[in-house]
What does this fold into?
Amino acid sequence: MSEFVVHTIPGSPFARAVFATLEDKSAPYRIAPVAPGSHKSPEHLARHPFGRVPVLEHDGFVLYETAAILRYLDRVLPDPRLTPADARRAARMDQLMSINDWYLFQGVANVIIFHRVFAPRLAGLAADEAAIAEAMPKARAVFGELARLLGDQPYLTGDSLSLADLIVASHVTFFTMTPEWAELGAPLHNLAAWLARMEARSSMQATTWERVNEMAKAA
It folds into this structure.
C-alpha cells in the first residue's frame, strides 16, 4: 500500500481526525510538518490556496478540506468501513461533520481553544477572557446539540464508529484542557462518556498532540 502524506501544523484537530482515520485503517502515513505561521507561505499556498491545514498527498493526488479527505480515505481504504451503510445514519454523519466545521469550530473552538490552549502554548499569550465569554452562548448550544444527537448511543451515528466520531472527538477533546469544560461537557454525561470511549481508542492515543509532535520532529 502506498504511503499517505499529511501536510499540517502539529496540534491541528482537523489533522488529528485524518491521522486517527489512518490509524484505524492501519494505513502507512507520515506527517510533513507545516511550521506555525507558515501556512500562508507560497510553498503551502501551492498545496492549499486558502492557506489552511491539513493537506493530503497520495500517489500524486493532492486533496484539501478535511471532510473530503476523510471520505476519500474511507473509499480507498474500505476496511473498516467508517461511513454507515444505512442512508439515514450516513446523512447524520454528514450533518455532524458539518456541525463540527461550521458551529463547533467556527466561533467556538477557534475562539475558546485558541485563547485557552494554542495562544498560551505557542505564543505565550494570555487568554482573551472577553472573547471567550462572547463565544460561550454558541458553545452551550453546540454542546447541547451534540449531546442530543448522541442520545444513548455508543457512537454519534449508532452502534459503530464513523468519521463523525473521529472529527468531532478531535475537537471536543481540546475542551477538556480548559476550565470551560466543567460547564460545557462534564455535565452532559452521555457526551463525556462518549469522549472517554473515544480517547481510550488506540487510534486516538496514537495521535495526541504530543505524539504528532514526536512524528513531526522525526520527519
The CA atoms of residues 26 and 32 lie 19 Å apart. Residues 87-123 form the longest helix (37 residues).
